[in-house]
Amino acid sequence: MLKPHPSHVVPPPEGEVELSGGDGQRAGTLFLAIAIVVTTVAAALVELAHAYDGHRADAATSAAHRLAADSVGTAQAAQQGASVLFEAFAQAEQQRTAQATDRQWWLIGIPGLGARSTLLDEARQGQLAATSDANADALKAAAAIAASAVAPDQDPNFPDRLFQQASRPTDEAWAIQDAALEEALAWHSRVGQLTAVLTLFAIAAYLFGLGLAVRLRINRILAGVAAVLLVAGIGWSIALQLSPPQRAPDQAAHEFAEARWIYHTAQTDADYQAAYQHLTRAIELRPRFAQAYADRGSVAFAMGSPERAGRTDISSIEGIHRAVADDQKAYDLGLQTKDVLTNLGYEQFLLGLLENRPDLYPKSIDSAIRAEALDPLDPIDYYNEGLPLLASGQFTRATSVYTDAAVRTAYLDAGHTLRNDYGFEESNVAGAFTDLEVLSKHQPELGARIASIKEIIVQRALEHWTTAGRTIAVTNPDLLVLPSLVLWKADLPGYDPQRDAIAVQWYYQDPQARGWVVLPGVSGRVEPTPDPDAAAGNYYATGNYLAQQGECLADGSYRAEIYVNGHLALSKDTTLAVGGMTAAKTSELGAGFCRPASWIRGVRDRGLSDGYVKADHSAGVYVFRYMHPGPQPNPALLTNADLQRAVDQFKDRLPIGLTYEVAYDGGQRPGLSARSGAVYGYQGGRALVTSGFAADGATVVMVVFGPTDYINKEQQPLQIVGSLFGIS
User: For residues 269 and 233, is the Cβ–Cβ distance under 8 A?
Assistant: First the structure.
C-alpha cells in the first residue's frame, strides 16, 4: 500500500472530532460510563433524601403552626387564670376589710351600733371571706412558685408581677413554637440544598455524557469539571445527612421563660445575674435562639446600669460590650426588628463615646435610621440618631433631628394631632435628657449646645410651643428630697398660670457617680401651688415618687432643672442620705410609706393595722386605719381623736407607757387632709405620731417610735413620717 503524501493528510481542527483511538480511548470511555452510573445512583439516593426531607419539612411546618395556635391558647388561659386569681384575692381583701371596719366600729363604740350586732356582722364577713379562701389560697400558691415575689407585700405595683408571672407559660410556649419553626425552616433549607445537589449531579451527568458521545480534545477538562461537581455533590449530601435538623430541647424554652420572669421582676444585682445565666443556658441548648440573644443583651446592659426602673440609658463598658455582641448576633440570626436596631444603635453610640471610637458613630446613625423606617411614629430612634450627630460635630443636622424627635414626641403626625399622652411624652423626654447628660459628661465642651437642645425638646415635646415664651426669674430656690417625694419651692415674680408654662426635670445620681438619670415619675409639666406659709409670689411643686413608681428614692445626689416658658431658669442640686429605704404600700389600709429595708414585719391586722420593726423591737413603725361611716362635717376632730385612740388601744404592739408631750406637725401628707400630729414619750424613747383624713372617709394614723437619741438626732424617723401618703 502506498503511503499517502503528507500533503494529503488533513489534521483535525481544534475542538472538532478526533478520529484516533486505542487503549486510552477505551479506558476513557469506561471511566465516563462508570461516572455516569455513579452520578445516576447518587442522584437517585439524593432524590430519596430530598423526598424524605420534604416530608419532614411539611411535618415540621404543621407542628409549628399547631404549636403557634396552642401558644395563643396558653396565653389566653394564663391571663384569664391570673385575672381569676386577682379577682378572688380582691374579693377576699374587700370582705376582710369590711370585717376590720366592723371591728373598728365596735372598738370605737359608734352610737347606734350595738356590740352584739357588730360582732355578728363581723362573723358574717368572716364567713364570706372564708368562702373565698380557696381562691385566695390559689393566689398564695401562685406566689409561692416565685418565692412570693407576686404577693402584695413583695410587689409595690401589685398585681403587676402576678400578671407577669402568668406570662411565663406563654413565653415558654412561644419559645417551643419558635424552636419548631426554626426546625421547619432548617428542613426546608435542607430541601433547597438537596435540590442544589441534584442540579450539580445533572450538570455532571450531562458533561460525562457529552464526553462519552462526542470525543473532544477538552474531554478531559469536561470530565474533570464533572468529577469535581460529582464529588462536591456527594460530599455536600453526606454532610447534610450527618447533621439532620433537630428541634431544640424544651428545656431551652423553659430557661428562656424563667429568665424573662426574673428579669421583669428583678430588684437586685443577683436577680439580673440569675436572668443572664438562664439566658446563657437557653443559648447553649439552642445556639441559634435569636430572641434569647436579644434578651441577654438587654440583661447585660441592665446589669451594668444604676437604673432599676423603666428604660436604662447608662451601663458599664463590660455591659455595653456584651449587649452589642448579643444584639448583633440576634440581628445576624435574622431578628432584624425595630427593638434590636434601637438597642444596637444606642449601644454603638455609647461604645463610640466611652472608648473614643468615632468610627462607630456612622454605624449608630445607620441603625437608628433603619429603626425609624420600621416605626416612623416612635420618637426614640430620632433621639438616638441625634446623639452621634451631636457627638461628631454635625450640629445643624443634629438640631434638625432633635427638633423632629421632639415634635414626634408630642404629635402623632407632622405636628397636627396631639398625642395627649403625658406619660409617653415625659418618658421620652426623660430618656433624651439622660442620654444628653451622658454625652455632656464625656464631651463637656458641648455643654452650651446640649443646653440649647434641651430647651428645644421642652418647648416642643412638653409645652407644645414652636418658640420659647417670655422669661420669668426664679429666685430663692429650695429643694427637699424625701424617700417618697421630691419638692421644689421658689419665688416666681410675675408668674401667671394662664400665660406661663413650667416644666421640671428631676435627676438622680448614685453614690458611685455613674451618671445623672432623669426620674420620669416626678418630672414633666407642673402647675406650682402658692405657698400659704410664705410671702406672695412664692410657689412650690411636689412629686410623689413612691405613689408613681411604687419605690422609695435611693441615697445619692439629686438635681432639679426648672424650665419656664421653654427657658432653663434654674438648676440646683441636693442630696439624700438615710441609709436606704424600701416601699411599704398597704392598700387595705389606704396608705403607703417608706421604711428601713432591714426592718421585719410586726403585728398585722388586716384592714386595721400593719407595721415593721427592728429585729430587737427597739424601733418600728405602725399604721392604723379607722373607717368612719357617712359624711364627716369636721374631719379634724376625727384625726385628733383617732390619733389618741390608736395610742391607747394598741398597747400590744406599741411601747408601753406612751405619754403625750407636745403637738407635732410633720408637714404635708399627700392624699390626706386635716392632718394632726403629736410627740409622745416613754421610758428610754419617744414616738412621732401623725394622722390624716383620707378621701374615702377613713382616718390613717402613723406611729414611729424608737430610742430617744434615734428620734431626736437621726433623720430617719422624720423621713419615715414624711413619706406617708394616702392611697385613693
Answer: no
How much is the pLDDT for 145? 37
Low-confidence winner among 53-62, 282-291, 703-712 (lowest mean pLDDT): 53-62
* Three-state DSSP state, 658: coil
> Given pLDDT bands bounded at 50, 70 and 90, which one contains residue 727?
confident
Give the range of the structural domain holding residue 673, as residue numbers without chain letter: 581-726
Exposed, middle or buried: residue 697 (CB in 10 Å: 0-12, 13-18, 19+)?
A: middle
DSSP for 556-589, please give it. Answer: EEEEEEEEETTEEEEEEEEEE-SS-EEEEEEGGG
On whether both 652 and 608 belong to a single domain, the answer is yes
Integer Cα distance of 171 and 163 in angstroms: 13
> Half-sphere exposure of residue 235, counting CA atoms within 13 Å on the CB side?
6
- What pLDDT does 516 receive? 93
Has residue 18 been placed in a domain? Answer: no
Check whether residue 419 and residue 479 sit in a common domain: no
What dihedral angle (degrees, nearest 10) is formed by the CA atoms of 26, 32, 36, 37?
Answer: 40
The mean per-residue pLDDT over the stretch 193-220 comes to 79
427 and 457: one domain? Answer: yes
- Residue 302 falls inside a structural domain: yes
Quote the mean pLDDT of the chain: 82
Distance CA(593)–CA(156), nearest Å, equals 11
Could you tell me if 636 and 568 lie in one domain? no
The β-bridge partners of 89 are none
Give strand pairing partners of 591. Answer: 586, 726
